[in-house]
Amino acid sequence: MMKKATFEEILNQDGVLVYRTRGVSMVPMLRQNRDLVVIRVPEKRLEPLDTALYKRGSDYILHRVIGVADDHYLIRGDNTFVIEHVPFVNVIGVLTEFKRRGKTYSVTDKAYLRYARLWNAIYPLRVFYRRSRAFAVRIARKLGVLPLIKKVLRHE
């Protein structure tokens, strides 16, 4: 049985890696099992809003760079709330384009860059919404009205 090549091996050999995304950490930009991503070896240090492919243990993670420090990147998925400190050496690739329903979207496209800037800028609002919703659910649960609220929201 032949050993399956790692992402690093594919990037070193071909200079490009194309694969279908898995997971929900980059929603709404990338959808699981729908979008193809094109990853290339970084030619220079990444910048905020770049999307890095890096290795965490034996897992490969594709998340957005939100900051750059002396020896690591600050990285967060579009659909996550935790900032990771990823050493430069762990980053093996950078997203250059993605494909959805036969159409290719470049990360240099103005519409894509507007999305990336906006999604990063509204992060505090997303955190506020998440915390407010969790607080409301806790209160509804304590008051015993959560099942009723869920029923009304389902229009039953």
What's the CATH C level of the largest domain?
Mainly Beta
Q: What is the count of distinct domains?
A: 2
Largest sheet: 8 strands, antiparallel
Please give the oligomerization state of what you see. Answer: single chain
The gross shape turns out to be elongated
> What percentage of the residues does DSSP assign to strands (E)?
25-35%
Helix content: 25-40%
The mean pLDDT is 93
Beta strand count: 8
Number of helices: 4
Rg, rounded, reads: 19 Å
CATH topology of the largest domain: Umud Fragment, subunit A
Describe this structure in words.
Strand 5 and strand 6 (84-87) form a beta hairpin. Strands 1, 2, 3, 4, 5, 6, 7 and 8 form an eight-stranded antiparallel beta sheet that branches. It contains four helices and eight strands, in the order H-E-E-E-E-E-E-E-E-H-H-H. The chain is elongated and about 60 Å long. The mean pLDDT is 93. It is 31% helix and 31% strand. The protein has two domains: 7-121, Umud Fragment, subunit A, CATH 2.10.109.10; 123-156, no CATH class. The protein is of the alpha+beta class.
What key attributes describe this structure?
alpha+beta; Umud Fragment, subunit A; 156 residues
Provide a compact summary of the structure.
The chain is an alpha+beta fold.
SSE layout and pairing:
Elements: H1 7-14, E1 16-20, E2 36-40, E3 51-56, E4 59-68, E5 72-76, E6 84-87, E7 91-100, E8 103-106, H2 110-121, H3 123-143, H4 146-153
Antiparallel strand pairs: 1-2, 2-7, 3-4, 3-7, 4-5, 5-6, 7-8
